Amino acid sequence: MRSHFYLAPLYAVVIATQIGLAHAEDLGVIGKTYDIAEHDLIEFIKDKLRHMEKTGELAKRQTEYKNRVMSGIKHPRPIPGIQATETANTHYYDPSIVTDKDIADATGKILYPRGTRVNPLDYIGWNKYLLFVDPRDAKQLEFSKKITAASDRPVKLVLVAGAPLELMRKWKMPVYFDQGGRLTRRFAITQVPAIVRQEGKRLRIDELRY
Q: For residue 180, what are the CA distances in angstroms to 68, 155, 161?
């Protein structure tokens, strides 16, 4: 395949820069130049794909990719660093943020100048509970059922391991998974079962013995 660049002139410019030339100088063209070959590259890719389609390799790779995606959905990787609760623990999470720019309304009026500390719980209530569970532990699942049945608010079940789709079909209710451990990291959860709920202007996290 042909080269994509005029190699010799570029090399001459680099040499001129390195030796500290203070003025432009035409060094001429040293060696053979080549046309840009984007079109050839595109044709090469097309030919490769046509060959893969003809031999069945393309369909095979598509199937393998789909199977990997489905496997990741059905059996996501367990969140590392999470264990069954040994010692009950309670801590808090402050959802406040500090604005990094002026926040204005639709008319342009500044509502929150840059640097203002804003707590979302001052304006909206958190009327649900998040219950983090490892469903591979049958006792945790039974414990979760009791908490859900006795709760005065909606409970969202968030798994840190296991098969969320399977449990969703079995329990006939929405089941969530802490993808990538984003929530457990945010709430500093290291033990499960753990429940997150609003208490005043903070979120309370209880890692529960069961």
A: 17, 21, 11
Which contacts qualify for 108-116: CB closer than 8 Å, 24 or more apart?
none
* Residues with Cβ within 8 Å of residue 172, at least 6 apart in sequence: none
Nearest to residue 192, comparing CAs of 63, 88, 50? 88
DSSP annotation of 176: E
Neighbours of 144 (CB within 10 A): 24
Distance CA 14, CA 145 (A): 70
- What is the pTM (predicted TM-score) of this model? 0.64
CA distance 202 to 94: 5
Residue pair 178/196 in contact by the 8 Å Cβ criterion = no
pLDDT digits (tens, 9 = 90+) for 75-124: 788 999 999 999 999 999 999 989 889 888 889 899 888 899 999 898 88
SS3 158: strand
Distance CA 38, CA 24 (A): 30
Closest C-alpha to 148, from 186, 199, 193 = 193
Phi, psi angles (nearest 5°) of residue 170: -70, -45
Number of Cβ within 10 Å of residue 175's Cβ equals 20
Partners of 130 in the β-ladder: 156, 196
